Amino acid sequence: MRTSNPAPGPDADTAFTFGLATAVVLAVLAIALAVRSGSVTLLSGAVLAMVVLPAVFVLASCVLAVWLGYDPDVVDAYKLTQSLREQTEE
Fold first, then answer.
1. Domain for residue 76, yes or no?
2. Among positive and negative, which fits the CA dihedral 68, 74, 75, 79?
3. 64-84: b or e for each residue (b if 16 or more CB lie within 10 Å)?
4. pLDDT grade, residue 40 (50/70/90)?
5. Of 50, 51, 60, which is closest to residue 26 (Cα–Cα)?
6. In this structure, how many other beta carbons lie within 10 angstroms of the beta carbon of residue 60?
7. DSSP character for 26?
8. Is 6 a domain residue?
9. pTM of the model
10. Domain containing 34: what range?
């Protein structure tokens, strides 16, 4: 039988949300800087954003989930997304 870790709590939820936002903002700023410096064209920057941003989002969420101690069970991930939606609706 698998033992479950205790829920990380509201501070971990806040850190998770802040970490995701920070990762996405940094990725957008890096792409914008590359376009502004001329090393990437505007069209290439848009394509890069469509390819890189989802990958950054998934990678950051995986790293943050492991670091903050979220249980890797899919049911717990569903509960986390529900709690984040409830927080944004308030």
1. yes
2. positive
3. bbeeeebbeeeeeeeebeeee
4. very high
5. 60
6. 19
7. H
8. no
9. 0.67
10. 12-89
